Structures are given as structure tokens and as C-alpha cells.
Amino acid sequence: MQAIKEKFESLFEDAADRKQLDDLRVKFLGKKGTVTTLMQHMKDIPNEEKKEFGQSVNALRQSIQQKLEQGIEELEARLLKKKLENETIDVTLPGRQRPIGGKHPLQHIIDGIEDIFVGLGYEVYEGYEVESDYYNFEALNLPKSHPARDMQDSFYISNETLLRTHTSPVQARVLNAAKGKGPIKIICPGKVYRRDSDDATHSHQFTQIEGLVVDKNISLADLKGTLELFLKEIFGQDREIRLRPSYFPFTEPSVEVDVSCFKCGGKGCNVCKQSGWIEILGAGMVHPNVLEMAGFDSNEYSGFAFGMGPDRMAMLYYGVEDIRHLYTNDLRFLEQFKYIEERGVKHESI
What we know:
single chain, elongated
């Protein structure tokens, strides 16, 4: 046993890595190791000496085991120290510049619009992108087989579930939750989906921001004043707006809203197609049927709603000719907008 111990210690001193230590463990303590085979001599030992012999073998085993464990710990400590020395960071060296991106032009427009309406006391609701047919159409005065549904052909998940075609379902849900009691003053931004063929001015996915106000004694004059304030804040205080009669199933009367061209001042140019006006959004007074379906007394409450496309506004603002540039994540396109200052979307800041 003494010879075995001395041989182990000699080999242990020469071990330089983890593999050599593991090899020593197998050589001395493995199933066929030197210490393990000592127990085979137990049958040749007189009975009165067997106890002492067994204790000596176990003591040798424990000594070798402890030595190996200590060796592994010391080896790992040396390796860690060496690794830390090699990977030491020189804090006096100059830092590495990390590229910083900018806000997406579309998000810049959306955030600016939200800021304006929040400043006017509106709340922001986003709602669900996967909607029921009821809230997407029926609650908005668009019953099944209504011809206006054809203009909003969408992606159906089932007969009663679809990707929303506008953010109006958010308005319908808020109306229902109010249980016939006003006031309501909200805007609803988010992505919407329609089964359009993608081209320079159309996309199967785009963004909308819709607004809804419901209270007593709300009139078309309130709608005009709100939109005039909003559009002047966006496009400049010298802008003018005009309302043209239109049709939407969920508003009556309905209007299209134009703003005088911010590029030519109304004289006519390529942006406004020589008309002096740019169509910006659709709006109107909330249809009595919509109010009644949500539990409001249309003789007591009235309201107005409006909807706009941030995509179109971004295209007008930045001279983007193809809507697909806003969605293809082309860094060559997006890096052009890093200069936009984070201070709103007023036309003067562009």
C-alpha cells in the first residue's frame, strides 16, 4: 500500500491537465484500478487481520480521492485565473461605438398624431387585430350581405372571425362597454388588413388611426373644429380644410376632409395633382343605428368619428412614392430618416 501511495503521488505531481487527473482516477480507483484490486487479496488474509487490512485499503482510497479532488480544484482555479488575465478589459481604452437606429417614419407619424389628441383629452385604445364579424361589420351598421362589405374584403379565419379591416371595431367595443352612458373621447391606432393586391399605393397590411367622440349636443361643427385644429397642428397653421359630402355606412352625414397643399400653398403642384388640395381622411356624424345598437339613446346622444391612414400621411410628408418601402425593412430606405428630431410631427420640423 505504501508503494502504491508513493507511485500515485509521483504521477500526481507530474499531472498537468484535467485529462491526466482523470486518467489517474481510473488507474488507481477504477473498477480494475490498483487500489480496487487490493480487495481481491482479502481471501488470503488471516481473519484476525482482515478488519485492519480493509480499513487500510479504505484509508488509501480516501487519501487518493481527496488528493484528486484537491488537484482538480487547484487546476480549475489556475485556468480561471489565466483566462481572466487574458480577457482583462482595459478600461482606459476608448469605447466602441454602437450604431443607433432611428424611429421608423411611420411610427414617427403615429406617435405625433397620438400626442396631439392626447393633448386634447382623448384616450388611446388599440384593441384586437383578430376580430369577430359582429364587431368588424354588424355593430357598425354593416349587416351581412351589405354591399359596402365588398370594399373591405379581408382575410377570414372562420365564417365569424377575421383580421380586422379597420380599427372601427375598437370603437364599437368601447361603445358597448359604456352601456349607453357618455362621454366617450378616444382614438384607435393600429394595423388593419384587407385583401388588396400590393402595389405602389396599396398594401394588404397598413395602419389606421380612427377617432370617436360621443356626448350630448355634439354637432358637425365640433367635428370640423377638431379636425381643423389637428390638421393645422400637423401641416402648419396656414393650412385650410374643406369638407366634401361622402358616404360611409357607420356615419350620417359623412364627409371627406381635404387640406390645402402644404407644398404649393394651394396653387397646384405634383403633390396635390394640380388641385391645390390633398385628401387626408374620412369622417362624419355617428350613425343613429350604431348608437342604438350599443345601447345609447340617439335622441339624447350624438357623436362624430373620423379615420385616417398614417401610411398616406407619411408618404406625403417624406415624398415616399411606394407604400411598400414602409414595410420591407430596407435599411437603405430607413436610414434616411435618422435626422428626424423627436419633437412631434409638425411640418416645420421636417
